[in-house]
């Protein structure tokens, strides 16, 4: 994570991974070999950046074997929103304006959203 040089003033970041190249979102079965965050990566984000929203391409932001520990790190801070299941095919790396439009579900802790990137 440190090698990415995420500037202090960045608040939202989407990570493109090999999950896109492997077209995991189009497979019928859940693939436990997806690329996701490890616990140390989550801790680094919480402790060293001002990020408030993290997004990835696949159904979970945490690596399969680190899922519970990863979520504990992020939930402990209670400030970082996770966005999972993104489709970033053909989206070049860069700085974008982001709008997330959630579906309002009363009494729910999560919701499907539309994320719109504007260059």
From TrEMBL:
One of its GO terms (molecular function) is arylformamidase activity. Gene3D superfamilies: Putative cyclase. It comes from the Eukaryota. Keywords: Extracellular matrix, Secreted. It is found in: Secreted, Extracellular space, Extracellular matrix. GO terms for biological process: L-tryptophan catabolic process to kynurenine. Its main location: secreted. Belongs to the Cyclase 1 superfamily. This is Uncharacterized protein. It comes from Vicia faba.
């Amino acid at each position: 994570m440190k090698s990415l040089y995420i500037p202090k003033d960045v608040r939202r970041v989407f990570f493109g991974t090999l999950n896109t190249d492997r077209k995991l979102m189009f497979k019928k079965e859940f693939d436990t070999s997806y690329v996701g965050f490890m616990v140390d990566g989550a801790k680094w984000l919480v402790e060293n950046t001002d990020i408030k929203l993290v997004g990835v391409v696949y159904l979970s932001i945490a690596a399969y074997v680190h899922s519970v520990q990863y979520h504990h790190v992020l939930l402990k801070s209670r400030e970082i929103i996770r966005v999972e299941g993104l489709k970033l095919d053909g989206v070049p790396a860069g700085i974008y304006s982001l709008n997330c439009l959630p579906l309002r579900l009363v009494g729910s802790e999560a919701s499907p959203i539309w994320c719109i990137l504007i260059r």
